[in-house]
Design goal:
By secondary structure, this protein is α/β, with parallel strands linked by helices. The chain has 15 helices and 33 strands.
Length: 553
């Protein structure tokens, strides 16, 4: 056939799983081949936008508008095709990918000649009990938007809260993970909160606000430990000056609605645990019969091709790509970018009958913002500190924003901020209640006597005591276990809680909001009859319901 493809043949079909950095640079690399008709590239992603994580901390703190860290997929990938759907399965024998549309699950089958696996990573929700229910994630745009609104809600509630213990919970913020992401979020938050307390929230004393950075290693910024320890020392000094409490050598062992339990025995009262550490890989990798490394990443050779195949490639967080200087490439966006570019070049070389070239990108440097217009960075071995490093950090990340439209938007946000202040609008994107899972540790109260009831609970694992506070002291009413439910009396009769329910072991519950519970009870007769039986209420109620009840404890 020769080196060039025949013009009367169909184009080579390339399917890319995932719409992140690898996909963007793959599309750019193959642009000319697509325009010539040699290649048909289809990029599959459940989101029709790309999130730029470099400015997450600035988005959370109002320096950058939320939508300005996203870029529309249909302006990123042309002339490649974009397929907005959920990836259901991959059949490597028949060389097909099955997707389902988000509306109703209707499936579609895509055929490929070359498959590019660029699935990225997800948050690891198995690291400690309660992380899935009570920790705030920073992986997806919806997660980030939720965190932004949550932070503003804590300030709003904190300013008007008169109970000292609850006020402390509302104004205490824990960031888990001392890598680049965690440090940037923690330092930006402290600066942000203190600015808002001075200018926008007169009812909050800046000294009331606590930001804690919890890191399992002995020193923060482990990404710099091997080659740039001096930068870590500077960062540690700046963080200490900023008032952030850094807890190294410490892990979170459990998260609940009201507190974080640490490995050193500390219990921190808080409503805000922000997770910026620990990633897991997409379960879609399990559908493909290829070798994985000890971290579960798909192993590739130096050409970014999966060994034993001639048509499967991988890059980004989900791939164990050999680093030119030894080891494997870190899970950093720039390696996904250059990996996608090299895969595109190698696919084109393969089409032309030429051998692929190895991946030779060894990195440019690193940068980490420390808030207050300070940062640490290094570029090709040269170290920068303070304001010069911060300028370099901003310019570096701004340059890699994938569209000029968003670059202009972000630049405008930066220029307008000093004149008009930061955006502090908190949007409630979801009802505060509904059906959700919650985790409680031994000794914690799920509900307290005297509270206004807005949820009913069903225990899925663990045990709890129902305790009635009387003038003579606490009275044990009953003990509950898996399958038992409580809280229904106050919800259906619109009364205050008549007892406290306290966990006697690690407890998992399903909570159902008042509106949802009433709707189900009115619609499904069996459900309504079950929850209205009130099996856990005593025959005699020593706490009158016609007057406020003082909460137990």
């Amino acid at each position: 056939m020769g080196g060039e493809p025949m013009t009367d043949q169909r184009p080579v079909r390339v399917v890319c799983l995932g719409g992140g950095w690898t996909a963007i640079y793959l599309a750019r690399s193959l642009k000319k081949a697509i325009e010539r008709g040699d290649v048909q590239l289809t990029i599959v992603s459940r989101d029709n936008f790309h999130t730029f994580h470099g400015f997450i901390a600035e988005m959370l703190t109002g320096k950058v508008s939320p939508t300005n860290i996203t870029s529309p997929a249909r302006r990123l990938f042309p002339p490649a095709r974009f397929h907005n759907a959920e990836i259901k399965s991959v059949d490597v024998d028949s060389r097909t990918v099955t997707t389902s549309r988000l509306l109703d699950g209707k499936e579609k089958v895509l055929e490929y000649d070359h498959l590019v696996v660029a699935l990225g990573s997800t948050d690891d929700l198995s690291r400690y009990p309660g992380i899935a229910q009570h920790a705030l994630q920073l992986k997806t745009f919806s997660d980030n938007f939720k965190v932004r609104n949550h932070l503003l809600a804590m300030l709003e509630m904190g300013e008007i809260e008169t109970d000292p213990a609850e006020r402390q919970r509302l104004l205490t913020f824990i960031v888990v993970g001392g890598g680049f992401g965690g440090v940037e979020v923690a330092t930006e938050l402290m600066d942000y909160f203190r600015r808002l307390a001075r200018k926008e929230y007169p009812g909050i004393d800046p000294d009331e606000i606590r930001v804690l950075l919890v890191h399992s290693g002995q020193r923060i910024l482990p990404e710099l430990a091997a080659r740039q320890p001096k930068l870590i020392g500077y960062a540690e000094k700046m963080i200490a000056k900023g008032g952030i409490e850094v807890l190294t050598g410490t892990r979170i062992t459990a998260a609940t609605r009201d507190e974080a339990i640490l490995s050193d025995g500390q219990v921190i009262q808080t409503r805000s645990i922000i997770s910026s550490s620990g990633t897991a890989l997409s379960p879609l990798l399990d559908l493909m019969p290829y070798d994985r490394d000890e971290r579960g990443r798909m192993i590739t050779d130096e050409f970014l091709q999966v060994p034993g195949t001639d048509n499967v490639w991988a890059a980004g967080d989900c791939a164990a790509v050999p680093h030119p200087q030894g080891g494997t490439c870190p899970a950093v966006a720039i390696y996904g970018m250059y990996g996608g570019r090299q895969i595109g070049r190698n696919i084109e070389r393969r089409i032309q009958g030429r051998p692929p070239k190895p991946f030779t990108f060894a990195g440019l440097g690193d940068a980490c913002s420390l808030g207050r217009r300070k940062a640490v960075s290094h570029l090709k071995g040269m170290r920068f500190y303070g304001l010069p490093a911060w300028i370099l950090w901003r310019l570096f990340f701004w340059w890699f924003v994938p569209t000029w439209e968003r670059k202009a938007d972000i630049a405008f946000d930066w220029l307008a901020g000093p004149f008009f202040g930061r955006d502090i609008v908190g949007v409630q994107v979801a009802a505060p209640y509904g059906l959700r899972r919650e985790h409680y540790e031994t000794g914690q109260a799920v509900v307290r006597q005297g509270e206004v009831g807005q949820q009913i609970y069903v225990i899925t694992a663990g045990t709890a005591d129902v305790i009635r506070e009387t003038p003579e002291g606490e009275v044990l009413v009953t003990t509950l276990g898996p399958g038992d439910h409580f809280g229904e009396k106050s919800v259906f009769e619109r009364t205050r809680r008549t007892a406290t329910v306290r966990a006697t072991s690690p407890l998992e519950v399903l909570s159902l909001g008042e509106n949802e519970a009433r709707a189900l009870a009115e619609t499904i007769q069996v459900f309504g009859a079950a929850v209205k039986e009130l099996p856990n209420e005593p025959d005699v109620n020593p706490a009158p319901l016609d007057q406020p009840v003082t909460p137990a404890g």
